[in-house]
């Protein structure tokens, strides 16, 4: 084995070692398994790994492979397996490691490895588990061989190995046979690199399998004994399974297809249903793998023979397999000869459709799926897009007509009524496949299904699938065709003309590439009729009026769909229609969302359609060309100026909280408006803004919605900012500079900052910010003191965009805004805090890239110019620690924590150490705000900084930190304890206990106790869980054998139990004689309740006396029935005292008063004291409420 330990060839394709390690780690975890085989594997793996380490080798795939192969060799002597357990484990691990071993090694040592595996594979007495693992190892070995190795004809060659694998694929043991067949399939699926795509062993495998099947068929026909036939049948099924494995690997040679078909046809004609089913499976794999030219006549003959083998309609076992073969055969034909396949559709579909009439759900479901597969995949899309006038077009048209007629006249007959759901799926798939060419052939099917859905009395059970079919028709043929076949009939309904308002939501969700003119002429006029009905109604709030209003809303909801890639935009979107929509926008607030969405869809759909990244189907191109979509955009651009003016007015009159959709529509039109019109519109808005600002200076002029006119106009300026032409940039930045300085108007300030963020969304806007960068910096710095607090997030966001375009030659903007950004980390607004943190990191990135900071020197002896780098940036941030106010110092520490965590890997070690030691000084500060920030920094330090740096400074840090371990306010003690726990997890208890001050070691002891307590609690919980786990494998065994639980249950029910949970038993007084436990009457003398002994005191309590040595019973009291005045009263008394059913069907017994009931189902309890009388041991309690039912009947 020395020659196997050569270094690994790096050029070989070796799988990731991590995957091998993952598989081996799963085996290692079984070292304590209760199963012997799993524990044995883990022990052997552990011994092998120990041996590899002792030899000084690394745990590589080759080392594992060589070790396990040597172990296998030791456990096999000549042709016998000496140690089967060791051999099984070695083969198992070889199966795992072979795919990860270098292929060059497997090729070089093929003979040696095969020689070691051969004794196991050829021994019939070896266990199946060992053979399965050996097959897996042999599979990896064969896959690794190159084409040169397959030319070897010696006794020890890949071909000899594959012959052995083929022998095992006929093994009588199912698992061995299945493993061998799967291995052959994988081997043939991965041929070695060669000019031929077919595996070198494909011919050999096909020839052997074919001859084997032919010989078995011959033997079966010659044998008359049933037992022999049974054995032959099993062997035939195994051979057919092997053929299926070879064909599914797409490796059956073309030259062997004809002999195979002949043999399979013979097998299909046998009387054994399992052989027939397996033969069909082999056919299925063969047809699915066909990718080369075929002999059409031969293929047609085979297909015809299979068709002639049509099984019974109710033969579940064979019918499903036969349907799959027919479908795959047709799909193979369509793949190779599409035009021929289309011509055969009319002859194939009726055969498949016959099985839909079967009563078996499995059969008619399979038949419907085969029908759909032949329609959808058997007719290529390329043939459907051929224009009229060609021969193929007429052929496809005839097929579509045949399918539609067959579905309408045959499948929709009463013969197939049990499979209506499957039929609707078929017709839905057909319409989806044929698209616009389904019109007008499928209108009959549409009418039938529509009538099923419309007829409410029929109570059609498949309404959802019927609606899906109608939706498919709308998407494929258009709403005009569907609504002409199934009219809405919203205004004039009758039995002959039923209303179909349920169609409106279906049209809304599926309409696209439709005619807007049709909507205007046929659907929209219904709205005015219903509006008239509502107006003339005596009660506008009646249910009928609400139904009318719902229909109106649904009709308007269809409009966006008709605007999605409208096919007749230029003729339909006239000035009159635009004026009508504008009038509705002004007059009806509820329609603004729908109309704005429709206008936005007009632009968005056409722009997406013309985008080069969008994939456009042939059906869409047929409806609307790319050039047509570009013309639509140009047409809308010509009208965009007027539409924008209208939208500006609507925006001004809409409540600020509900006008986002108007702004989105404005943004869509701003994208296509011509530059000249945009400039005019912008100038108008600027003029209105100036006028509003002037008027508001004198008096607060507000709009009807309560919003200031200046703020509304400023919103429009913000929306237009990123589209403004370069000629209007001066005016835009002039507005920004003016509005940003309005100290008393926070709304204007916020919108001014948003102009900068809006500009950053486009490339031209970024260039504008870069062009006016110095002016913007100046404005930002000048307004630092006058900015409202509510504008802080918008201001910081604007700073981010300005900083992104700042020049590296002048980074003075960073130190100028640094103090404000640091202070913003303590802002009450969460968004402002988040932006300030990201801005701190962004400034660090800019400084890291380098640059110049002019005028950085604040004193005369300092340099006027400094170079930008990270160390300089940290120096500037740390300068905030010298501030006078605790708030500023706290903010500076928070900022340092943020940037230290972000730049910990880029900073030098000495700078980090200096920052840490400086910030830790503030742990001893008396200000809680500063200390809180410093504790936060310590937490970041522990998480982010190198371990050796923290450990060197551990004692000093803890000495300062423990000052706050006794402070309860602000959760200081909890935070300190949390930090100590983290340090213990990182460095261990001993190191922390040694570094912590002596007087504070109680905290460490407390943490240790808490952890110990938590571990005990967890262990106790696990023990309880194990205790509560079932002791028996099944509920039946528990019921039969777990008598103790039954006794406990009985004992609990009786109420008397001993210390072990068992009920106590008492022996009644039997006189002088002892109780005979063997007597049949012994059970009558045993009681579960303690027997009561009567004394003289008990006799006195009873109502009887002694007279002349006799008992005299006192009969002064009468029975309850005798005391009643009549029989009726006695009956009423009995009824009143009877129990009644209460909540949860419990019996309730009456106690004393009518309102006093008991929930017990036992006899009534003792009478309670009357009202006002209090028992000495009881407490005054709130009287129970009378039981009332939750719902009224």
From TrEMBL:
Biased segments, Basic residues type: 1179-1193
Pfam family, one: RRP12_HEAT
Region named Disordered: 1009-1028, 1043-1069, 1135-1193
Basic and acidic residues bias: start-end ranges: 1017-1028
Subcellular location: Nucleus
Domain of life: Eukaryota
Any one GO CC term of the record: nucleus
Domain RRP12 HEAT positions: 357-654
Residues annotated as domain RRP12 N-terminal HEAT: 32-246
Keywords on record: Nucleus
Descriptive protein name: Ribosomal RNA-processing protein 12-like conserved domain-containing protein
């Amino acid at each position: 084995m020395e020659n196997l330990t050569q270094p690994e060839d790096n050029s070989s394709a070796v799988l990731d070692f991590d995957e091998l390690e993952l598989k081996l780690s799963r085996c290692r975890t079984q070292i304590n398994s209760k199963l012997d085989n799993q524990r044995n594997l883990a022990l052997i793996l552990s011994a092998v790994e120990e041996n590899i380490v002792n030899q000084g080798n690394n745990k590589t795939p080759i080392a594992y492979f060589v070790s396990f192969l040597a172990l296998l060799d030791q456990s096999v002597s000549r042709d016998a397996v000496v140690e089967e357990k060791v051999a099984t484990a070695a083969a198992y691990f070889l199966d795992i490691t072979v795919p990860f071993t270098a292929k060059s090694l497997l090729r070089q040592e093929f003979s040696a490895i095969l020689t070691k595996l051969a004794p196991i594979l050829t021994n019939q007495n070896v266990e199946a588990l060992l053979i399965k693992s050996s097959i897996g190892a042999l599979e990896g070995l064969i896959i690794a061989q190159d084409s040169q190795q397959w030319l070897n004809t010696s006794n020890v060659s890949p071909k000899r190995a594959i012959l052995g694998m083929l022998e095992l694929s006929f093994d009588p043991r199912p698992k061995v046979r299945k493993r061998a067949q799967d291995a052959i399939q994988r081997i043939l699926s991965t041929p070695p690199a060669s000019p031929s795509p077919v595996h070198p062993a494909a011919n050999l495998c096909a020839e052997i399998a074919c001859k084997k099947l032919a010989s078995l068929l011959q033997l079966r026909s010659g044998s008359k004994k049933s037992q022999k036939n049974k054995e032959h049948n099993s062997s035939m099924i195994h051979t057919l399974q092997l053929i299926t494995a070879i064909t599914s690997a797409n490796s059956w040679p073309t030259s062997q297809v004809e002999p195979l078909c002949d043999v399979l046809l013979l097998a299909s004609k046998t009387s054994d249903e399992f052989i027939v089913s397996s033969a069909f499976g082999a056919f299925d794999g063969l047809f699915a793998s066909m990718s080369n030219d075929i002999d059409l006549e031969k293929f047609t003959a085979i297909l015809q023979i299979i068709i002639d083998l049509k099984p019974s309609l109710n033969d579940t076992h064979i019918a499903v397999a036969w349907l799959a073969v027919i479908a795959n055969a047709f799909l193979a034909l369509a793949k190779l000869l599409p035009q021929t396949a289309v011509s055969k559709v009319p002859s194939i579909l009726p055969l498949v459709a016959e099985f839909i009439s079967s009563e078996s759900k499995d059969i008619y479901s399979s038949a419907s799926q085969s029908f759909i597969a032949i329609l959808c995949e058997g007719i290529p899309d390329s043939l459907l897009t051929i224009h009229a006038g060609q021969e193929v077009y007429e052929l496809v048209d005839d097929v579509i007509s045949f399918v539609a007629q067959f579905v309408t006249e045959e499948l929709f007959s009463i013969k197939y009524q049990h499979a209506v759901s499957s039929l609707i799926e078929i017709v839905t798939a057909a319409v989806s496949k044929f698209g616009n060419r389904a019109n007008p052939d499928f209108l009959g099917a549409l009418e039938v299904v529509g009538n099923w859905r419309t007829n409410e009395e029929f109570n059609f059970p498949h309404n959802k699938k019927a609606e899906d079919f109608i939706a498919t028709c709308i998407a494929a043929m258009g709403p005009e065709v569907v609504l002409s076949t199934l009219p809405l009939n919203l205004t004039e309904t009758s039995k002959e003309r039923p209303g179909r308002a349920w169609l409106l939501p279906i049209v809304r969700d599926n309409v696209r590439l439709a005619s807007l003119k049709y909507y205007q002429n046929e659907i929209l006029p219904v709205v005015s009729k219903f509006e008239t009905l509502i107006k003339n109604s005596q009660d506008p709030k009646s249910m009928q009026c609400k139904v009318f209003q719902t229909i109106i809303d649904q009709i308007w909801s269809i409009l966006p769909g008709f605007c999605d890639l409208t096919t007749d935009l230029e003729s339909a979107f006239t000035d009159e229609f635009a004026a009508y929509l504008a009038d509705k926008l002004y007059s009806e607030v509820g329609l603004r969302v729908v109309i704005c969405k429709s206008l936005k869809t007009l632009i968005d759909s056409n722009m997406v359609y013309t985008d080069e990244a969008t994939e456009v189907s042939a059906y869409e191109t047929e409806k609307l060309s790319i050039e047509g979509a570009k013309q639509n955009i140009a047409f809308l651009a010509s009208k965009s100026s007027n539409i924008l003016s209208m939208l500006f007015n609507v925006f001004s009159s809409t409540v600020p909280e509900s006008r986002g959709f108007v702004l989105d529509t404005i943004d869509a039109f701003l994208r296509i408006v011509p530059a000249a019109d945009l400039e005019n519109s912008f100038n108008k808005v600027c003029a209105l803004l100036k006028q509003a600002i002037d008027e508001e200076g004198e008096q607060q002029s507000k709009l009807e919605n309560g919003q200031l006119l200046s703020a509304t106009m400023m919103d429009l300026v913000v929306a237009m900012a990123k589209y403004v032409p370069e000629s209007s940039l001066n005016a835009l930045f002039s507005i920004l500079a003016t509005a940003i300085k309005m100290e008393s108007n926070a709304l204007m300030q916020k919108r001014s900052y948003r102009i900068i963020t809006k500009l950053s969304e486009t490339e031209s806007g970024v260039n504008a910010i870069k062009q006016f960068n110095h002016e913007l910096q100046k404005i930002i710095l000048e307004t630092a003191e006058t900015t409202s607090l509510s504008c802080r997030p918008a201001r910081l966001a604007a700073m981010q965009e300005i900083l992104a375009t700042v020049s590296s030659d002048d980074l003075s903007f960073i130190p100028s805004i640094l103090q404000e950004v640091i202070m913003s980390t303590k802002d009450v607004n969460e968004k402002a805090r988040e932006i300030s943190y990201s801005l701190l990191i962004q400034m660090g990135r800019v400084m890291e890239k380098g640059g110049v900071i002019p005028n950085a020197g604040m004193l005369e002896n300092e340099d006027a110019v400094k170079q930008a780098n990270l160390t300089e940036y940290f120096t500037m941030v740390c300068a905030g620690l010298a501030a006078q106010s605790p708030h500023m110092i706290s903010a500076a520490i928070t900022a340092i924590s943020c940037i230290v965590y972000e730049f910990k890997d880029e900073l030098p070690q000495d700078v980090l150490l200096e920052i840490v030691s400086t910030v830790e000084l503030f742990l001893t500060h008396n200000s809680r705000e500063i200390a809180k920030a410093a504790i936060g920094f310590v937490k970041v330090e522990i998480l982010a900084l190198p371990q050796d740096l923290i450990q060197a400074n551990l004692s000093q840090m803890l000495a300062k930190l423990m000052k706050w371990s006794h402070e309860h306010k602000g959760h200081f003690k909890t935070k300190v304890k949390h930090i100590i726990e983290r340090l213990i997890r990182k460095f261990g208890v001993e190191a922390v206990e040694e570094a912590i001050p002596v007087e504070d070691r109680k905290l460490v002891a407390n943490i240790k106790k808490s952890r110990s307590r938590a571990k005990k609690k967890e262990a106790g919980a696990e023990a309880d869980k194990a205790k509560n786990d079932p002791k028996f494998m099944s509920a039946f065994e528990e019921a039969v054998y777990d008598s103790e639980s039954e006794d406990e249950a009985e004992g609990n029910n009786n109420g008397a139990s001993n210390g072990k949970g068992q009920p106590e038993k008492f022996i009644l007084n039997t006189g002088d004689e002892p109780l005979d436990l063997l007597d049949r009457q012994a059970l009558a003398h045993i009681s579960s309740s303690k027997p009561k002994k009567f004394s003289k005191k008990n006799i006195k309590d009873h109502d009887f006396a002694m007279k002349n040595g006799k008992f005299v019973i006192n009969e002064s009291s009468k029975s309850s029935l005798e005391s009643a005045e009549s029989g009726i009263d006695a009956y009423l008394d009995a009824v009143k005292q009877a129990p009644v059913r209460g909540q949860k069907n419990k019996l309730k017994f009456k106690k004393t008063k009518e309102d006093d009931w008991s929930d017990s189902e036992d006899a009534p309890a003792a009478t309670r004291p009357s009202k006002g009388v209090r028992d000495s041991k009881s407490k005054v309690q709130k009287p129970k409420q009378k039981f009332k039912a939750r719902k009224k009947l």
